[in-house]
Every structure is written in structure tokens, then in C-alpha cells.
């Protein structure tokens, strides 16, 4: 298929600097080359910039970089809509605040095609805070609340013309949820599969039920992949490490099943912080996982030759 790589060096939504280096790190790890070798036509938009800044202040004193975050959301909403017309956009972050814009733009595209947008949220966190409830002020903790139409963003974040139905959002890998998020999720039909459910049922069973739902609805599927979905023992390059994440094989199984489904229409790769990496191994793993989503199987993966 036609694939467009879009570098989004946003890092003001997170609490640690370094995410802005995520796009070049993944390109150095060979992401574009891997996709081309799989037969995809790869276009690279390079590094994009936010919209012009507007002065904004919120009564929650913890919030920081509100104007910058809104500028990124405006730009990415437009880009996601435009670049999803005839290609699969892959947004390379950058922190998870970027998904407030990418999903908003993709929801507009889905509405235009009269198809529902589904979101698979692979993350340790639910990112379901509003501007009022966030205590850290880190706005990478707000995108799901925003793009599903929760109150608390009006007058600050851009007006949301096409909210994603919360019932169309499934989260897998969750293991760190703030009390305010936990309470809000009790009142909204988002499906949340924490790591205990993965331990009890297996990630394949949980994912297959979601994919069957997307297929039955003829939906478009956006995958938002946060590095902290993975266990930090295999992916240390993230500022929000939470022990007990997905293993190497669980992550590859998710990506292989997503490819087999043929349903994925767009992708976020977020929170890669190369400053925290170990000799590039996290960047290499994320590129490898993306290749699995795009069609590379274990049998295609280069392996060490055996000698007799």
C-alpha cells in the first residue's frame, strides 16, 4: 500500500525532554527501508511544524505548554485528514499529546466516508484526563478524553467536529491509572484491558474480539502505539516506564494479528525517547514491530545462520 511517514517532534506534553528525537531515531533504525522492502510505496513528509501559537491560559495551575499543545493539535488534525485520503499515514512522535490531533483528523475522514472510526490504544496509561483533572499538567495524558468528546476542553483545545464513539475505543496493556481517570472510565463505555486480563486470557483473545467488532461495523482502525505498552526490560527508552508491560512475543503477536486483519488504516508511534535508550535497541524494536504490522512475519525476519 501507499504509506506516508510524518515526523512529529512534539515533546511539550510530557514531563521529560527527548521525545522530539523520536522521528530521526526511528528513521535511523531503518523504518522506511523495512517498509519499502515489504513492497510498500513509502513517502516521507519529513519533520512537520505546529500551527501558529495563540495565547491561552487555564485556571488549572499545573497545566504547562497549553498554547504549544493546541498549535500541534490544530496542525495534526489538518494533516491527518489530508494524508489519510489515499495513503496510510504513520505519525512518528513525539509524545502522546499528538494523538489528540491525529485521531481528530482521522475521525473527520471516517465520517466523510460514512464509516465509524475505531481506536486501539496500546499503552500503559489511559490518557483520560481533562484539563481540569490533570494534576501533573502533562497534556499527553489528555488525548483520549479529548477525541472521545469529554467535557472540559471547550475554549482551549480546538472544537471537535467528529468525536470518536467511546464504545469504539479499546485499550490494551493498561497498568497505571489515576483515580480521576478510573472514576471517569466507570461512566463511559471504553473497553479497558489491563495486564491482569492479558495474563488471564492472553492478548490474542482480547484483540480478536475487538477486531471482529471493527470488521462487523466496516470500521476504519487507527492504532496508537505508546512505547510504554512494552515492558521496560525490552524497551527502556520512554520517560513513563511502568513495570509489567507486554513482552516481545505479545507485542509481535498484536502486530501480526493487526496485519492479518487488514483493518488498520493509520498508526501513531509515540513516546520514544532516544536519550533514554540503550544503544538504540528500543528504536530498533519499534521499527521491527511496525514491520510486523505491515506484513513481515517471523519467518521473514533475518536470523543467524546455523553451522554444522
Could you explain how this protein is built, in words?
This protein has 308 residues and is an alpha/beta fold. It has a single domain (2-300), classed as Ureohydrolase domain (Arginase, Chain A). The chain is 35% helix and 16% strand. The protein is built from ten helices and eight strands. It has an eight-stranded parallel beta sheet with strand order 2-1-3-8-7-4-5-6, with helices on both faces. Helix 7 (195-201) crosses helix 8 and helix 8 runs parallel beside helix 9 (248-261). The longest helix is centred in the first third of the chain and has 18 residues, at 66-83. The model has no long low-confidence stretch (mean pLDDT 95).
Topology at a glance:
Elements: E1 2-8, H1 22-28, H2 31-37, E2 41-47, H3 66-83, E3 88-93, H4 98-112, E4 117-122, H5 143-147, E5 169-174, H6 179-185, E6 191-194, H7 195-201, H8 203-216, E7 220-226, H9 248-261, E8 264-270, H10 281-293
Parallel strand pairs: 1-2, 1-3, 3-8, 4-5, 4-7, 5-6, 7-8
Helix pairs in contact: 1-10, 3-4, 7-8, 8-9, 9-10
